[in-house]
Structures are given as C-alpha cells and as structure tokens.
Amino acid sequence: MTVQFPGLLLDGILALLLVAVIVACVIVYRRLGTIKAGQSELKLLVDQLNGAALVAQRSVEGLAASASDIESRLKLESDKASRIADELSLMTEVGNNLADRIANTIEKDHGVSGSDTSTTAQGENMGSGRTEGKKQQREILAALREAR
To answer: Per-domain residue ranges for the chain?
Structure first.
C-alpha cells in the first residue's frame, strides 16, 4: 500500500494543478473576450475619428477657398475705394481752387466798387440793389471760407 499512496498522491496533486490551469485558462479566455470586445469598440472609435478628420479636412479646404475668394473681392473693393478716394481728393482740390477764384473775384468786385467814389444819378437809384448784392457776395464769401 505504500507503493500506491505516493502514486495516488501524485495523481491528486496533478489533478489539482490541472484544475488550477483550467480555471486560469477560463479566466484568461474571459479577459481575452473582453479585450476582443474592446478592440472592436476601439476599431469603431478609430473609424469615427478618421471620418471626423476627413470632414474637418474638407471644411478647412472649403474655408481656405472661401478666404481666397473673399481676399480677392476685398482687394478689388479696396482698389475701387482707393480710386474713388483719389477722385474725391481731386474734386476737393478743384472745388477749393474754384472757391479761391470766386473769393478773389468777389474781393476784386468789393475793392472796385468800394473805391468808386463818384456816383451818378443812376448809381444812386441802384444803390440799394448794390448793397443787397454786396451783402449776398459777403455771405457767399463767408460760406466759402467756412467750407474750407
């Protein structure tokens, strides 16, 4: 009996080790299943991320095209505004020159009529008309000076 007991004990230890290995394999198998499920979810997540990156790339390309289009339009509008500003500057200069000429003409008329001391009978009759005309000329002159 002594011969069989160590063999039986050895068989029992091997059986226990075999059960422990089977339990460990079941645990590993379940964890591998969890990992595999996580892997498929991860693949789905990566696919979604890839799709979002493609959409973002197309959006950026669209924004770049829009920005280029807007830049060209702004350049055209800026050039147009610059031309209009140049024209307005020229018009203002011409207007100032014209105002200077009108002012000089009015001042010359005032100087000539103010130095004319000889009055005729017609001049006396038209005196009130001249004063009113001079008054209007002074108002125009004052308005021109204020406009500058």
So the answer is: 4-147
